[in-house]
Amino acid sequence: MRIGPAELAFDAEGTPYSPAYGDVYHSADSGPGQAQHVFVAGNDLPRRWAQARVFTIVETGFGLGLNFLATWRQWRADPARCERLHFVSIEKHPFDRTALAALHQRYREFEPLARQLQDAWPPLVAGMHRLHFEDERLTLTLAFADAAEIAPRLRLSADAIYLDGFAPRLNQEMWSEQLLRQLARLARPGATVATYSSAAAVRQALEAAGFAVEKCPGFGRKREMLRGSYMPRRSRPAAGRRGERHAIVIGAGIAGAALSERLAQRGWRIELIESRPMPAAQPPARYAGAFHPHVSRDDCFLSRATRNGFLYALSRWLALEHSGGALDWARCGVLQLCGDSAREKRMIAAIAAHGFPADYARFLDRSAAEAHAGCALGSGGWWFPGGGWMRPVSLIGAQLAAAGTALGAHFGARVETLSHCGGLWQALAADGRLIAAAPVLVLANSNDMTRLAPVAQPLQQTRGQLSYVPAENLSAPRVVLTGSGYVLPAIDGMLVTGSTYDRDDDDPEPQLRGHESNLLRLAQLLPEARVAGDAAALEGAVGFRCAAPDHLPLVGAMPDVSAARARKAALSGARLQDLPRCPGLYCATGYASRGLVWAALAGELLASLIEDEPLPLEGSLADAMDPGRFVLKQARRGKL
């Protein structure tokens, strides 16, 4: 979806106004006053969130963000506030950061909070953007999307609903019976709803969706408004209560470290098990990897998910640095070179189709690309100004340090088998020794995952070799270059370049043929540079990618493959939610060559699933990553 930003305009009274819809963004009497009276008080806040662990608000129409800011201010001042507040808001035409800052100058009562919102404001690209405030006790999830399209894809349980679209006569889609039914689907029994509108059509649509609605005094010149509560016709099963917040995470790589940090932030204790020695005992790694989003003309699952992952990763890394984490990285920008004229046309068309803002992605011709790179190139390509490189060892160290005392580390311990007994998962060594036990266990151990628990699909292991090339004889790029391979700017006098894709090769040591192959890739990326030297003299590193056949990661609750096979006849027309699952068992793996982009979002997704919080991405994307998808596919084809 192409996101069209809102236009900064005002009506004759000086109230922020939308020329596209012909309506004001809030009451001419007071925007903050309307937000407090209609939405905060109209949903009986703060009484309803008092002493709750998690409270979730859903809003249609973020606009200037005044409802969010009023809610934040109320929550912040309330000593009996809920432990964690989620605010999920849909906006089809968001303001850009500059316009938002200009608008917020009009509402001095929100000044310190508004500045934090502006600083965290995401680029205007489609999808869901998760922003954290107040030491992550307050989370804003912005859905830049059409409400009718995104509402069926939201995964959450709402305690309160703010209906704040433009007037029903001017923006009928935001008040349709179909949309309100989707919001009812998201509502918990007893969830409240409030809106400034008192239109009969809105009241009738709410009642048809299952809300008991009443009129009450409106704000300012508005005589009446509507408020109500959700009364489902059929009872729903209550969400299971989470017991002890104690989990085992197997794997201390980029997946396990990110998840451990996300769980620890929510108050979990983590037993982190890793078969390798403690990272601090290993020699410093030169290895650095590139990070950037994926772009496609059809905006496929991979593109949409990496967009979420890339932007969320950046926000998490900046937060880690802000809290004292020592990250070794640079946002120097990434140039993905097209290489030939046919691909150039496709890349230009893909960028044009989506209308991305320049601070996210744009196409550069060869001359502009060379100006950014600081060296001669063979073509132009996509420019991702927020991309760059990262040393994963530094990221893993910062995440584990952020987990702090919540983390119990078991390095040099190999899990041979898993056992589930008395509601606890047990991780056992080869001699039967218990390494750790907890009610929740997460497999984040890459290619080794299916040895411990199957997903009805073998995962692909691909060897990747990097080469470290001295920068002294090359005109090194100032940015990351990708294409036939990739090369990073000089780091400590070395260029990191690669990478090979070696199937059916489990050699953990660098090979001469790998260095030779990487030098050829480097010559293609830097066609006018003199790439010479003895390949046999190069140093390098080897890693092993883990990938699923569909190139998407596996993040979620593990399927019970044995139980599914026993019920395979009944699952021929099933959906993901119908699959039997292993209680308390999850996985986060299959990141392939995009671990830096996937890991933070996957950790947040899994922590949200475990805690029954709103998901940080669309349900369709969560389903595309669900580890049960292979069981479901085989069941539907009668091959389970």
Overall mean pLDDT score?
Answer: 94
Strand content: 25-35%
Number of E-state strands: 30
Helix vs. strand class: alpha/beta
Q: Provide the gyration radius in Å.
A: 26 Å
What is the overall silhouette?
Answer: globular
How many distinct helices?
Answer: 18
Query: Could you name the ranges where pLDDT drops below 50 across 5 or more consecutive residues?
Result: none
Helix content: 25-40%
Give a short account of the largest sheet: 8 strands, mixed
Give me the side-by-side strand order of the main sheet.
5-6-4-3-7-8-10-9
Give an overview of the whole structure:
This protein is of the alpha/beta class. 29% of the residues lie in helices and 25% in strands. It contains 18 helices and 30 strands. The strands form six sheets. Strands 5-6-4-3-7-8-10-9 form an eight-stranded mixed β-sheet, with helices on both faces. It has an eight-stranded mixed β-sheet with strand order 16-17-15-25-26-27-24-28, sandwiched between helices. A six-stranded mixed β-sheet has the order 19-12-11-23-30-29. A hairpin with a 6-residue loop joins strand 26 (486-487) and strand 27. The longest helix has 22 residues, at 301-322. The mean pLDDT is 94.
What features would you highlight for this structure?
640 residues, 18 helices, 25% strand
Layout: helices, strands, pairs:
Blueprint: E1 17-18, E2 23-24, H1 31-40, E3 54-60, H2 66-77, E4 84-91, H3 97-104, H4 111-120, E5 127-133, E6 138-144, H5 147-150, E7 158-163, H6 177-186, E8 187-195, H7 200-208, E9 211-217, E10 224-230, E11 246-250, H8 254-265, E12 269-274, E13 289-291, H9 301-322, E14 329-330, E15 334-337, H10 341-354, E16 362-364, H11 366-373, E17 381-384, E18 388-390, H12 392-403, E19 407-411, E20 417-421, E21 424-428, E22 434-438, E23 440-443, H13 449-452, E24 460-470, E25 480-482, E26 486-487, E27 494-498, H14 512-525, E28 539-547, E29 554-559, H15 561-566, E30 581-589, H16 595-611, H17 619-625, H18 629-636
Parallel strand pairs: 3-4, 3-7, 4-6, 7-8, 11-12, 11-23, 12-19, 15-25, 23-30
Antiparallel strand pairs: 1-2, 5-6, 8-10, 9-10, 13-18, 14-18, 15-17, 16-17, 20-21, 21-22, 24-27, 24-28, 25-26, 26-27, 29-30
Helix pairs in contact: 1-2, 3-4, 8-12, 8-16, 9-16
